[in-house]
Amino acid sequence: MNHDLQIGTLRTLATIVDLGGFGRAAEALHLTQPAVSQQIRRLESFLKQPVFATTGRNMRLSPAGAELLGYARKMLRLNDEAVARFTPPRDGIRITFGISDQFSDALPEILRGLKRVDPDSQVTIRTGLSESLTEQITAGSLDLALLINPWPDPAYRIEEIGHLKMAWFGRPAVGSDAPLPLVLFTEPCTLRGRTLAAFEENGIKWKRGYEGSELIGLRAAIQAGLGVACLVANADELWGLPTAIRPTLPPPPGPVPTGLAISSRVPEEYARAALKSIREALHAYPLAVPQHS
Description:
This protein is 41% helix and 22% strand. The chain has 293 residues and is an alpha/beta fold.
């Protein structure tokens, strides 16, 4: 018997993870919270096990849920590309917006702002590491991308957002002379490279405590005491992560440049309004903002 996964249900899963909760996902998807919960129960019926190990402020995917999320993102990307190719919008414009997952808590406000820019627009969201999003906007599958440490390319222009302050988080139980376990994003990742360089340059012994491509996994690893990670400096306020207190830690990398990559396909009037809206939505982040913004 064949089992078909519904795109809408997979989009609900990805949105819960990206926005950090069932209520936020319901708002973004224009669903009731009971409807969102019902869709997750359908996925659990398919998996025959829980999708989330924990929910609430310390939300964490189960191992099966994390694996399913990887497939969900691939399927959503293909679905959205096919829809964009064969069903042009009747009104407004269609925008595919990528956002570095460290900014995911700002997504509800960003989406509301983009809707104010053009109420008839159709906005599709993709989250992930900036390196992956850069590849996508270079290939033409994204129109806008909010990136950490962006680099120029003929396929798009970069509008500066500011410089993002970083800090160390995590309190693993290891001796003072033992190698410090690190919680790292998988390669390619510029922040990973900067983290390892900070340790190497300061002669601090380290080992891999956890590696993963999803921010939700890194947050869970930090909360589980698996190691130390370099994340946005207010991660304690955003996600309840413990700040690192080891005196031997090197200065954190950064501040890291942040910018909005804008494809040449995006109308200039929309691009300017979207840039202003996104800057306003990031007010809670520790950004040193350029004077002209």
